[in-house]
Amino acid sequence: MSTAENLVSQEYKYGFVTDIESDTIPRGLSEDTVRLIAAKKNEPEWMLEFRLKAYRHWLTMTEPKHWPNLTYPEINYQDMIYYSAPKQKALKASMDEVDPELLKTFEKLGIPLTEQKQLAGVAVDAVFDSVSVATTYKEKLKKHGVIFCSFSEAIREYPDLIRKYLGSVVPTNDNFFAALNSAVFSDGSFCFIPKGVRCPMELSTYFRINNSESGQFERTLIVAEEGSYVSYLEGCTAPKFDKNQLHAAVVELIALDDAQIKYSTVQNWYAGDEEGRGGIYNFVTKRGKCAGRNSKISWTQVETGSAITWKYPSCILLGDNSIGEFYSVALTNHAQQADTGTKMIHLGKNTRSTIISKGIAAGKSNNSYRGLVKVMPKAENSRNYTQCDSMLIGSNSGANTFPYIEVMNNSSAVEHEASTSKISEEQLFYLQQRGISQEDAVSLIINGFCKDVFLQLPMEFAVEAQRLLGMKLEGSVG
Amino acid sequence: MLEVRDLHASINGSPILKGIDLTIKKGEIHAIMGPNGSGKSTLAKVLAGHPAYEVTKGQVLYEGKNLLEMAPDERAREGVFMAFQYPIEVPGVSNAQFLRLAYNEKRKHLGEEELDPLEFKDLLKERAKIVEMDASFMTRSVNEGFSGGEKKRNEILQMAVLEPKLAILDETDSGLDIDALRIVAGGVNHLHNSENAVVLVTHYQRLLNYIVPHYVHVLAGGRIAREGGKELALELEEKGYDWITSSVTGSGSSAVSVI
Question: How many structural domains does chain B have?
Fold first, then answer.
């Protein structure tokens, strides 16, 4: 009887391919590949050491295939390309020297990079396949002491900072995908907010995978010194290919005393077609360390793309009174699979964490929340509040919740609430009876369901996220 | 305005409406009464286009158009409104946001310009007075955490905002205390005029003390068993439904024997 069926998604509008000449290394992974990547990037010896250590460790590790609620064919790591960069001049003094084809690509994605058209109030680092092609507002930020540049540039220009913080939150041997990333990562973004500075604009990185056979392995490192504040946005898209592409990123955040980092993601990789052909395999390690007292790290994510999502943005609450937050909307449609959630590790006294997770599963997709709340013996008077809500659309989708809770002292409290709901025929009829079309009604219900998370997003992102969910679910009920 | 001819409808294959004829002209107030299970709520839902009901026979003309061919949202935009017996909650969506979306859908349909949130706020404030609702209701999620009476008032607020041509109130009086009933009825009376029509679906005569109908139709067994003026409601109040249902059962079985 239910009308909640008949799933059709709107065409993925970012599915185009940019025709550009690129510098691509042969497929396969070995110590030589790692050395080749380091050589291509003219990296110092210490960086190569870091990579090799990670690579050697990776060889001893196995892919985490058993515990996630995901099924996918074997990934052949020797059949992949680990470095692919668009050919262009090595140094870009101004945007005029960036390949017009690349500028055009990003403009088409809604990220204009040229001086005249740059987005107001948002500095953007644009990453295309393996390299950062442009970073806007660099000079303006420098005046405030804020460093925002590509990772390659940071290794050259700020080696002390990189050596101090790289791998300090996600060690090279942390997990299979983090080790792989540490060995072969090619670029990414570095942000440094000095003591007492409130970053004057939003910082943002836009990731674009273009090459059909290359993986994207980027690295983001954000350091917020004492009393500083930064809001960082991440966006991503990829063309439509029949084959799957691997995206294995590592993001590390460090907040010192009284510092705040707000990290928001709207992820819209290509998710594969209705039958599950193609799409991005997104295996990402994101972790923040509240190293200082009274520091705060907030993760907000809207996950709509990827054939597979394996991602647990986490907070290590080391400093006393530090705060960790995780707000997530994960939407899966068609044959998509998501196993996503967070880890809140309470180490310091009076630490607080909040987890709000909204999972929406349509089509024959599978959407799992997996979360760990761990309160260590010394984390006295700590608190966690977790709310996990799932919404099912149609009768062929699945939602699961896997909460892990470990509390090792008596003064702390952990609360967990969970719910599963369905868009009901009655709800749709009610809205339709008021003149709202069925599609708008679904979109309204979903947006209402996700409201607590959208409220956390920066304004422009919130609008984008709402539009995106509406688009992804177009015609999903009928 | 509305012409219902020999309407038959069923849910999950079991027939509920077994031949309804009804004519409603603008400016009129009709009461549809009947015992539980007589089909009066089904009639309301079928007119509004509820997808669970299947029309198996008959036709419905609304302003000369075939109502049954229109999707529920289309009917709504054309001016058919149903106040729900059990208004639905929509978590996370504010009443104001929902009402503005609905209102603008109708404006678009009529080729009028949409109202922005500020313009709409003024309109909403004005209309909310009709049902004595204060501003706090506008920022709360649609019907979420509303008391029974608040939900019903919210239905009439929606009617006040959308200004339907044909308003069908499905047991709007059920579960209301006397004060809420007075407010709801006052709202309906305020909104009723010579250009629109109101259909009150109710079990009890009580509501009709406040909203006085021109016609009363009594349903039993999916058919209209009695019709009359407002005095028919008073008669029902006195005698109950039994005398009508028994006569219908009688005529029903005789009809079967004829076939």
Answer: 1
Between chains, do A427 and B90 touch, taking CB under 8 Å as contact? Answer: yes
Nearest CA in chain B to A454: B92
Helix (H) or strand (E) holding B106: helix B95-109
- Greatest extent of chain A over all pairs of C-alpha atoms, in Å: 68
Q: Which of A432, A445, A452 lies at the smallest CB-CB distance from B72?
A: A432
ipTM attached to this prediction: 0.93
Secondary structure class of A383 (helix, strand, coil):
strand
At B166, which CATH number?
3.40.50.300
Which positions in chain B touch A450 (Cβ < 8 Å)? Answer: 92
pTM: 0.83
Query: Considering just the CA atoms, what is the radius of gyration of chain A in Å?
Result: 22
CA distance A21 to chain B (A): 48
> B8 pLDDT band (50/70/90 cuts)?
very high
Distance from the first to the final alpha carbon of chain A: 12
Is B107 an 8 Å CB contact of chain A? no
Residues A271, A296 contacting (CB under 8 angstroms): no
Which residue on chain B is closest to A425 by alpha carbon? B51
B18 by DSSP, 3-state: which?
Answer: strand
Amino acid B2 reads L
Q: How far apart are CA B125 and CA A328, in angstroms?
A: 35
Q: Between β-strands B2-11 and B53-62, what pairing exists: parallel, antiparallel or unpaired?
A: antiparallel
Other residues' Cβ atoms within 10 Å of the Cβ of residue A240: 18
**DSSP per residue over A203-267, as a string?**
EEEEEE---SSB-B-EEEEEEE-TT-EEEEEEEEE----SSEEEE--EEEEEE-TT-EEEEEEEE
Gyration radius from chain B CA atoms? 19
For A351-374, the pLDDT digits (tens) are 999 999 999 998 899 999 999 999
Low-confidence ranges of chain A (pLDDT < 70): 1-13, 15, 88-97, 109, 115-121, 130, 236-239, 241, 460, 470-478
Please write the tens of the pLDDT for every residue from B210-237: 999 999 999 999 999 999 998 898 888 8
Q: What is the domain partition of chain A in residue ranges?
A: 22-472
Instruction: Supply A330's token pair.
Output: 């994960």
Phi-psi region of B225 (alpha: psi -120 to 50; beta: other; left: phi over 0): alpha
Minimal-distance CA residue of chain B relative to A448: B92
Domain span at residue B33 reads 2-258
- Residue A252: count of CB within 10 angstroms of its CB: 21
**What tens digit of pLDDT does each residue of B87-144 get?**
999 999 999 999 999 999 999 999 999 998 889 999 999 999 998 988 888 999 999 9
Query: Of A407, A421, A432, A462, which is closest to residue A265 (Cα–Cα)?
Result: A462
Question: At which residue do the structure tokens 């006294």 appear?
Answer: A349
SS3 B205: coil
A381 touching B (Cβ < 8 Å): no
Chain A residues inside the 8 Å CB shell of B109: 435
Q: For B175-201, what is each residue's pLDDT tens digit? A: 888 989 999 999 999 999 999 999 999
Contact state of B102 with A435 under an 8 Å Cβ cutoff: yes
C-alpha closest to that of A339 among A382, A372, A302, A371: A371
